[in-house]
Amino acid sequence: MTEDKIDIKSLNFTELQKLLEEMGEKKFRAKQLYEWIHKRLVLSFDEMTNLSKDMRKKLDESCTIEGARIIKKQVSSDGTAKFLMRLSDGNTVESVLMKYKHGNSVCISTQVGCRMGCRFCASTVGGLIRSLKTSEMLDQIYEIQRTTGERVSNIILMGIGEPLDNYDNVVKFIRMISDENGLNISQRNITLSTCGLVDRLKKLVDEKLTITIAISLHAPNDELRREMMPIANRYSIHEIIDACRYYVDMTGRRITFEYSMVEGKNDSRECAMQLVELVRGLNCHINLIPLNPVEGRMGQRSKGADIQNFKLLLEKNHTNVTIRREMGRDIDAACGQLRNKERGGNDDESICKD
Ligand SMILES: C[S@@+](CC[C@H](N)C(=O)[O-])C[C@H]1O[C@@H](n2cnc3c(N)ncnc32)[C@H](O)[C@@H]1O
Ligand code: SF4
């Protein structure tokens, strides 16, 4: 993105009004401009035909509307499409379009890389390069909607990166994508997945958003979690569960726990029973995810029978549980794999070693 120009797509409605005032333009133009950018999804100021030529010229000189552009697309036999998006500085991220009967979901990235270092994850190979701007998150949705013609109704913040490590831009993204002057996607249809940054999680609850929170738990005790996720050295499972209780109490909404099943690691009967005890009394749902093994990263996927037995044990003990339906298994399924392939899979030492 051109550094000296204003990143106009990252400005919310109020900020856009202020910008126009500063440019000597009428405030009411903000609605027109916001709609061109966030509803009609145009790629240039030239296309904004109800704005004067003079105003378009001024905007073009001082602002940029650039964002993410699709450079590669993989389509699975089940219709799931994975996109490699190029950002204006040449970095790349991944986004995925999944088609369901109830509508289209898009999974977006929130950072270029990730510094959390989870041992099984492809997104953290190479560490964190940078966080995404609000415009770059919006543009993943806009670009998919624009190029496929499919209307997006659900958003999942579960692509490359840790959303709560890019807190301000992510919260702004959620508010802007649900703005009635833009795509107006209901916050109830947005899910944010986090490895569990407890302080940020509590702060997020206080934002009074109506999104769904998913916690990447993956282990029922601290010892095992520390083996799988370095962040577990900073926050204990009990601190996470306390933050989840706060979330449920404050919002009345159910929380989701993601549990990636790794053969011989976290798929035992004992783990299932510990998990039951951990979440007892909490309004929650557990999503069992068969691991997508990543070359050079930790673990193999649990056997189908072990996943079923784990699920049965949870059910018998009155715990809400499902096995996540796998979408796009025949393409580079684990998040971050496509990007790694593209960049040659270089490892980096800047990741979290807590
Ligand atoms: C890529 S992360 C992004 C969101 C956030 N950073 C988090 O960890 O929740 C999304 C989800 O994918 C899971 N995941 C990462 N690598 C995986 C793999 N190889 N197989 C299955 N799930 C994986 C994560 O644990 C997390 O639940
Ligand atoms: S699972 Fe999430 S937090 Fe962990 S390394 Fe991957 S993207 Fe980062």
TrEMBL record:
SUPFAM superfamilies: Radical SAM enzymes. S-adenosyl-L-methionine binds at residues 161-162, 193, 216-218, 292. InterPro entries: Aldolase_TIM, Elp3/MiaA/NifB-like_rSAM, Methyltransferase_A, RlmN_N, RNA_MTrfase_RlmN, rRNA_lsu_MTrfase_RlmN/Cfr, rSAM, rSAM_sf. Belongs to the radical SAM superfamily. RlmN family. Its main location: cytoplasm. It comes from Butyribacter intestini. It is found in: Cytoplasm. It comes from the Bacteria. Specifically methylates position 2 of adenine 2503 in 23S rRNA and position 2 of adenine 37 in tRNAs. Residues 100-330 form the Radical SAM core domain. Pfam families: Radical_SAM (PF04055), RlmN_N (PF21016). This is Probable dual-specificity RNA methyltransferase RlmN.
